[in-house]
Design goal:
two-stranded antiparallel ribbon
């Protein structure tokens, strides 16, 4: 083996040693309420540097593996937080409201058709009233209210 081949071999061995010597590093992204909302593993130094440059928090492997639903990163510690409340945009809320009003209108129309055609079944008059009240409550809704405060959809038996 000539000198140039030896240098290449030594260089390749050195690069391989660097790759083998790198230990995985663990990073998380955190939202404004300290909830962990993203998890990344760096398998190389360049990835680790990129994650650090993105201001992601670095965790130990044990901390990383302990992350579950509704976990927060508080003072460098992973803790189970209260259930995270999802926030939706006004546009998304309007789309949900529109879909619910459309569904209610379809139910109301079908129940009305059954009554007009003499095909109503037991309980249909009550179901029709329930669905109409639901649709009115939806039409009066402040869409900025959390989804949990919106009127409940009538059950199929209602």
């Amino acid at each position: 083996m000539n000198m140039s081949e030896q240098e290449i071999t030594v260089s390749e061995q050195s690069e391989a040693a660097q790759i083998v010597q790198f230990e995985r590093r663990y990073f998380v992204s955190v939202n404004a309420d300290d909830y962990i909302n993203g998890m990344m593993i760096a398998f190389g130094q360049e990835e680790a540097e990129n994650y650090a440059a993105m201001n992601l928090a670095e965790l130990t492997q044990a901390q990383f593996e302990s992350v579950g639903q509704d976990c927060q990163l508080i003072s460098g510690e992973v803790v189970k937080g209260p259930p995270m409340v999802s926030e939706i945009t006004a546009q998304a809320a309007q789309a949900i409201l529109t879909a619910r009003i459309r569904d209610a209108s379809e139910k109301i129309q079908t129940l009305t058709d059954a009554a007009e055609l003499g095909m109503a079944e037991d309980g249909d008059a009550e179901r029709l009233t329930t669905w109409k009240k639901y649709r009115v409550r939806l039409s009066q809704l402040d869409i900025s209210a959390p989804l949990s405060d919106w009127p409940a959809t009538p059950t199929e038996t209602a």
